[in-house]
Amino acid sequence: MKNHLKRPVSPKTWIINRKENKFTIRPNPGAHALANGLPLGLILRDKLKIASTTGEIKKILNNQEVLVDGKRRKDHRLIVGLFDVISIPLISKNYRLLVDTKGRLVLIEISAEESKIKISKVVGKTVLRGGKLQFNLHDGKNIVTDKKAKVGDSFILSLPKLEIKKILPFKEGAHVFLVKGKHAGDTGVLKTVKGVEATYSARDTDIDTAKEYFFVVGESKAEIHLGKTLEK
């Protein structure tokens, strides 16, 4: 696989200057699809502007702690995906990767306290010996537990241990965040689910969209900050 990616053909979900240079950082294959994540080096260099070159970013990653979901990472090509938490003790800042209302990947600054949790969506499950369940999460992680949950539910996980603090059911009344489609970046309250479609309410309007686009982020209200992004 090539180590670089031409800027003009990079995913439309990336907010980058496509004419500044010919190439940008290509992330290594990981838990997220190319369009659903950003390379860690690009986040540090182009988004947070901690350094101006990839070489400087490599030195920072080798000499300073940069945490993704509570674990130190040194690979500047690591793909950071939706709802991942980035913590940078060097500047005492914490961020979460989300999508904006144009479907683009954006960083949300969060508090140190909120950086200790992550919300992950259940996308599959398997029954193991002994009756325990293995849940497959949207970010490639797997959790084995005797807790009960359904595909479409979300877990609030502690970082970095990934202990389940709370289960957020995908049901009527849940607070949801849209991660894809023309309503990406919107939030509201889940109203009904019918087959592969679902309806949510936002700004006194009921909106229909695909069920797979929903991400439960709370029961009566969001458990994480979904506010102002760092992008313009």
Give a quick account of the main beta sheet: strands, pairing sense, barrel closure. 5 strands, antiparallel
Tell me the Rg in angstroms.
Answer: 18 Å
Order of helices and strands: EEEHHEEEEEEEEEEEEEEEE
CATH architecture of the largest domain: Roll
Number of strands: 19
Count of DSSP helices? 2
What is the general shape? globular
Instruction: Quickly give the structural class.
Output: mainly beta
Write down the CATH class of the largest domain.
Answer: Alpha Beta
- Unreliable residue stretches: none
Order of adjacent strands in the largest pleated sheet: 5-4-7-8-9
Termini separation comes to 33 Å
Helical fraction: under 10%
Beta-sheet strand percentage? Answer: 35-45%
Describe the structure.
By secondary structure, the chain is mainly beta. The chain folds into 3 domains: 4-112, Structural Genomics Hypothetical 15.5 Kd Protein In mrcA-pckA Intergenic Region, Chain A (Roll); 118-168, Ribosomal protein S4, central domain (OB fold (Dihydrolipoamide Acetyltransferase, E2P), Beta Barrel), CATH 2.40.50.740; 175-218, SH3 type barrels (Roll). The chain is built from 2 helices and 19 strands. A 5-stranded antiparallel sheet has the order 5-4-7-8-9, with no helix packed on it. β17 and β18 (205-210) form a beta hairpin. The two termini are 33 Å apart.
